Amino acid sequence: MMNPDKTFVALFTYGGGMRGLVPAHIMSKIEDATGLRMAEMVDIFAGPSTGAILNAALTRRHPDHPEMPLYKARHLVKFYEREGIHIFPPDQFRDFRGILHDFNNRTLKLSQLNWLCRHGHYDPENLGKALKALYGDAKLEESLSSLIIPAYNIDGEQLEVAEEKDETGDTPACTVNNIMDEGGHAVWFKNIRQHNSELQPSATLDVSLYDAVMASCAAPTYFPCHHFSASYPGEPGRLSYSAIDGVIFDNPCISYLGAIRRHIPKDHNLVMVILGTGYTNRSIKKEDWNRYGSLGVVDPVNDLPLINIFFHASESALMDSFAEEVGDNLYIFNKSMVHGASHPHAPSAQIDDASPENLKNLHYFAEEIYEENKAKFDALCHLLSCRRDRRREEGCGTVSKRRKSVYSFFQGRKKNDKK
């Protein structure tokens, strides 16, 4: 049996806009089943875009009780249901989905094309207002559990690179490990709370949760890039970021290899929990691919086949080796949105569908994931509860004396009620 004291729990939450309701509902079920909040059960949170929204909120400290998280998962369910329609207002941007198709058919006026190309984004102020209300002035370094927020910095001039002489011995060449690195770069905004003295402490960038999450949510064609500056404590100057959605490069395999594994104590077992927002990878027949042509492979009418491949290729290449390395400690809660798309309660795969009907369908979808993985869900909750019980017995870890007194108080009330 796995030793709760030597178990390290990492949670990866996928991106997907409004489809973030799915993991929010699943996490709410986990909290209900265990009686704990996610930050009390998970050692390290990772994931891009809408996953970053969830993770950052669930690890935000309560201002009056800093040893406790401010939000429960059910609060995040309400967040999506309340703010989604403001972040993605209907009928203001969906025309852009068919821009290439309309242009190919010459039904789009040049003035319309020019306007869409220059202004084809949802208003980022709506998303920003919602995130500011959610996070306030909280900073990344204040997260209750370890937190990793991925984004892609498109401005390569802001990168710090080693200068080495080129083959002629004269002109400096910007390289890292002999790899040219002058373009954009994947960025991990990390606050790693040390769980083992053997691990070297990691410096945490002085950045607000708002800026880090806004950067990770800047999905191309949906929102403009998010520009901000930040610095490392004790270092002169500030770093400038022009960042777009971390979904560009991130998935569970990439997060594990690039950001999580190095922070796991060597004598601990890793439990990796993956909460999905629905698989959208589609099969493409060779006849269809060959007839698409150069524009057809990026046409929204064809479901953006080339972009779909870009988003899923690296994960499909790494998943087998990743799953083999993690072994039986891998808990995946996700399912396809492609199969069963004709079902009357099937949710939209579009990340910007905040309609009341789709919110209900996303809830149904989360319930289906739960029902299809109930044995795995129960096993995970049992493992998390065992860790909770052990920590209560030892009087350390995430359970404070204040929580113990509250627990005893309610136990006393239950006994009195029975009398």
What does this structure look like?
It contains 14 helices and eleven strands. With 419 residues, it is α/β, with parallel strands linked by helices. The strands form two sheets. Strands 1, 2, 3, 7, 8, 9, 10 and 11 form an eight-stranded mixed beta sheet that branches. The longest helix is centred in the last third of the chain and has 22 residues, at 305-326. It starts with 6 loop residues before the first strand and ends with a helix. Mean pLDDT is 83; it is low at 97-106, 161-166 and 396-419.
Task: Give the averaged pLDDT, no decimals.
Answer: 83
Low-confidence stretches: 97-106, 161-166, 396-419
Fraction in beta strands: 5-15%
Annotation, overall tally of beta strands = 11
3D shape? globular
Number of helices: 14
The portion of residues assigned to helices is 40-55%
Give the biggest sheet: 8 strands, mixed
* Helix-strand sequence: EHHEHHHHHEEEEEHEEHEHHEHHH
End-to-end C-alpha gap:
39 Å
Structural class: alpha/beta
The oligomeric status of these chains comes to single chain
Q: Nearest-angstrom radius of gyration?
A: 23 Å
